[in-house]
Amino acid sequence: MNDLVPEDIHEILSMLEREWSEPRQTLHNGKPTVLPLSVRLERATKALEVVIPAPPDVMSFWSEFRSARLFEDQRHSQWGLVLVPPERALELTDRLFRDRARDTAQGDLVVGEFLGDSDLLIVRADPEAADYGSVLVALPLDRRKDWHRVGSSLADFLHKYASAEGAKYWESPGWS
After folding, report:
1. 37 contacts 79 by C-beta, under 8 angstroms
2. pLDDT for 2-34, tens place per residue?
3. Where residue 76 falls among pLDDT bands split at 50, 70, 90?
4. In a domain, 119, yes or no
5. What is the domain extent for residue 101?
6. 87-99: per-residue pLDDT in tens?
7. What is the pLDDT of residues 115-152, one digit of tens each?
8. 37 pairs with which residues across the strands?
9. Which one is predicted more confidently, 173 or 137?
10. Average pLDDT over the chain, rounded to whole?
11. The pLDDT of residue 120
């Protein structure tokens, strides 16, 4: 799955929207989720106006969608992931660099917020970096060396996250 092309983001999100538009329970770590989860996509209504240096799959996402609420618990909004619009991505990225300067690296771009906690989804957007395009989960209290690398690209991450039905697979025992 590491060779996914940007168009695969649209396929993954369309499949999630079809299968998860109606809230339903799933299994996480072998146990049923307490609350039903669903997926909601907000389609872009106009061309992207914010110029952000980002990998092609991120730009592909923003060309069709403003945001995506993935595996959100519909009762309390305390579980799930929000892929944010470009304006919010810039705000969150600026805040990350301001508040956690010693843990950031040139090219970090915050593209998502996890609901119910302070974890952030970061895409590496420095085209000169060896890890260009890879995806990290920034933990609120942990140093960068302890952040999880969760995908080689946004499309790769979304494929894994969809396969895990919204579970934080990187927190599972034995995952590396």
Report:
1. yes
2. 344 445 899 999 999 999 999 998 888 788 888
3. confident
4. yes
5. 7-167
6. 999 999 999 999 9
7. 999 999 999 999 999 999 999 999 999 999 999 999 99
8. 24, 73
9. 137
10. 90
11. 98
Count the domains in the chain. 1
- Dump the DSSP string for the chain: -TT--THHHHHHHHHHHHHHSS-B--EETTEE-SS-EEEEEEE--S---S-----HHHHHHHHHEEEEEEEEETTT--SSEEEPPHHHHHHHHHHHHHH-GGG--TTEEEEEEETTS--EEEEE--TTSTTTT-EEEE-SSS-GGGSEEEESSHHHHHHHHHHTTT--GGGSTT--
Q: Does some domain include residue 175?
A: no
Look-up: residue for tokens 């307490």?
34
Q: What is the CATH number of the domain that holds 89?
A: 3.40.1580.10
Residue 49: count of CB within 10 angstroms of its CB:
7
CA distances from 104 to 107, 164, 171 (A): 9, 28, 22
Q: Does 51 fall in a domain?
A: yes
Provide Rg for the chain, Cα atoms.
Answer: 15
Distances (CA, A) of 90 to 30, 51, 96: 37, 10, 10
